[in-house]
Amino acid sequence: MAGVDREIRRNPGWLDGCLLVHVQPVWDGAAAKKFARNRNRVWWQHYRHVAAHMRERGGALPAQNESVRARGLYRWLEAQRRQHDAGNLTQDRIEALDALGEWRGTRRGNPDALWASRPEQVRQFHAEKGRFPVYTPQRRPEEKALATRLHRQRTWARNGRLRHDRHQHLDRVLPGWSTPTS
């Protein structure tokens, strides 16, 4: 409190500025709906850019190293793949993306089967080393890959983005997986 009093003595208008920032009206329902409409509009705008890019290149998906514009489209498409994998992509958006062709990418095999194999690899590593993989530059490349995958699952779990069934699978196969250790 002494710091606040000191700041008010130095600058009498300081507290008014703080209150101005903190005393703001709460969004009403109309503002929230407008925000949602804007997000929807932005999604469809990105979709149109991807569709135009694919038309210009004979149906080829945007590549990460093609150009700055293509890299942005590639990243947006990757975000849609992640949303789809997590079950968060609406049916109208899935149908629109399906109309583009093979938008789900060049993943090898079934994404769920591929995901299910990763915890087993981490389990084997843990059984051999007695610890979870840790990403440090001094480690072998295969430990880096496992550590990165495990870190991603921890982050998604912490942010509430990890699918419930996957979280349960990790809890069952890798007890203690969610707590990072050094």
UniProtKB/TrEMBL annotation:
<feature type="domain" description="Helicase-associated">
    <location>
        <begin position="41"/>
        <end position="101"/>
    </location>
</feature>
<dbReference type="Pfam" id="PF03457">
    <property type="entry name" value="HA"/>
</dbReference>
<protein>
    <recommendedName>
        <fullName>Helicase-associated domain-containing protein</fullName>
    </recommendedName>
</protein>
<dbReference type="InterPro" id="IPR005114">
    <property type="entry name" value="Helicase_assoc"/>
</dbReference>
